[in-house]
Every structure is written in C-alpha cells, then in structure tokens.
Amino acid sequence: MFSGYLLNTWTVATIAAVVAGVVGFFIVLRGSAFVADAVPQGAFAGAAGASLLGINTLIGLGVFALIGALGIGWLGRRGRHDVATALALVVMLGLGALFLSFSVEYAPEIYSLLFGELFGVGTAEVAPVAVLGAVSVAAIIVMYRPLMLTSVMPELGEARGVSSYRIEMCFLVVVALATSMTLPVVGALLIFSLMIGPPAAARSVTNRPYLAMCLSVIIALVTVWAAIALSLMTNWPVGFFVGTFGACCYAAGRGWAAWRRRRAVRDDMDRPLAPQPVSQN
C-alpha cells in the first residue's frame, strides 16, 4: 500500500485534499456548488481540443477552465447565476463532444479526466500539482478578508468599497486554477466530491470560519486517504469511496447540528425562570 510506485499517488492526493478543503470552504459558503461542478466537467473540452491539435492537454485544460469560470462570472452579473452556470457548462460540453467526434482514440483519456488516474501518477506530475496547489492556497489566504466579507455580508462589503463582482471573478480564477491542477490526476467527479462533501460537513459542525476551514481540510484528507486504502484492498473505484464518504460526513454533520439545536432548546426549557421583582406601591 505504501510501496514506491504509490508514493506519488499519496502525495498528489494529499495536496488535492488540502486545496479542495480550503477552496471548497468558500464554495460552500458562497453557495457556488454548481460552479464547482460545471468548471471541472466542462474543462475537459479544452483537453479534448488540445489532444486533437497535438499540444499538451494541460494547456487546453487550463484555458477552458479559466474561460468557463470567467464566463460564468460575467454572465452571472447580467442574469441569474444558476442559468449562466448551466449555459457555460452546456457550451463547454458541446464543444467537447465536437472535438471528440473528430477522433476515435479518446475513451481512455476521457475516462481519466472524469474519474482520474490516481494509481498512475508520474513523478513529473507531482511538482506542477504542488506548485499550483500552493498558489491556490496562497491566493485564498491573500483574499481571505474581502472574500469572507463578500460571502457573508456583500452589502456591507460594497459599502466599504469592496467590489463583490471583482472578488467573485478572482475567486473563480482560483477555482479554475485548482481544477486545472487536480483534474488530470483525480478527475472531475473526484475533485467535485472533495470540494463539496468535507466543507459542507465542516460548516454543519461549526460556524467559526478558521475552525471550519481546518476541519474541512482534515475531513478531506481522511476521506481521500481512506478511499485510496479501500480502493487498493477492494479494487473498487476511488471515486466511489470519496463520494460515499463525503455524503456520509455531510449527513453526520447535519445530524450533529440537529442534535445540538434540540439540546439547546431542551436546556432553555429546563432552565428555571428568574424570580420577578415585587413591585411596591
């Protein structure tokens, strides 16, 4: 399980989990789960086009992820955000289908882009993933205060001179960067599961931002490590375990939150009433 040829797998999966936990916290906080699904799934069209042209698929992947994310942000400012996201996804998937129709040698590559190749990670892929992952986390750290403000109280942010649209576009660039970093290795479906499940579970447990973000990273790490170990033991897909663990963690988080609410209500009901002062006439 920890043999030499799997060392790259554990390393890249760890980096992907950390990035997904950090970026995914703000995806959940801002209600951008659809965007996190659309950008990686639509970006494979860029990889298909790059493969058709005979250039590095990472270039096409990064370009389409960036164009898709910025397109969603631009269209979302002029209309409903969910509609803009759906339109961007449809256009990118349509282009991907067109590019793939010109080639008959795409099945293995598309499968890897959707589900990843965690057990086939080369040594040369570790460094780029590590660099882009560090850039993504650093960008979130730099943007933390305005990003938090526009996520929780956008009106107050505008009153203080923080442009919600500008922060949104910068955040979408980070999402595209994180997608480009992880998509060839962990796949579109796997990174989407990591960006939504653990952060949503963490948000259900605590309302403190720093604690929720750290908890999100921890849950993502445990999820991906357990998924790899179980995949090696059962020969089942890694994505199945990641998606299942993410859903279970979220359900557990919601259950914990519901239990805390019921306990708080019960404690309030059991608390004795304060004696009322006797008025003297």
Task: Describe the protein.
The chain is mostly helical. The protein has a domain at 4-199: Orthogonal Bundle (ABC transporter involved in vitamin B12 uptake, BtuC), CATH 1.10.3470. Helix content is 82%, strand content 0%. It has twelve helices and no strands. Helix 1 runs antiparallel to helix 9 (164-186), helix 2 packs across helix 9 and helix 3 (57-77) runs antiparallel to helix 4.
Break the fold down into its secondary structure elements and pairings.
Layout (H helix, E strand, L loop, with lengths): L6 H23 L3 H21 L3 H21 L3 H21 L5 H9 L7 H20 L1 H9 L1 H6 L4 H23 L1 H18 L3 H26 L3 H33 L11
Task: Give a brief description.
By secondary structure, this protein is mainly α. It contains twelve helices and no strands.
What labels would you give this structure?
single chain; 281 residues; mainly alpha; ABC transporter involved in vitamin B12 uptake, BtuC; 12 helices; globular
CATH architecture of the domain at 4-199: Orthogonal Bundle
Helix count, DSSP H or I runs of 4 or more residues: 12
**What characteristic shape results from the CA principal axes?**
globular
Q: What is the CATH domain class of the domain at 4-199?
A: Mainly Alpha
CATH topology of the domain at 4-199: ABC transporter involved in vitamin B12 uptake, BtuC
Mean pLDDT: 80
Rg of Cα set: 22 Å
The portion of residues forming beta strands comes to under 5%
Q: Superfamily at the CATH H level of the domain at 4-199?
A: ABC transporter involved in vitamin B12 uptake, BtuC
The secondary-structure element order is HHHHHHHHHHHH
| Unreliable residue stretches | none
Helix content: over 70%
Structural class: mainly alpha
Number of distinct beta strands: 0
Termini separation comes to 83 Å
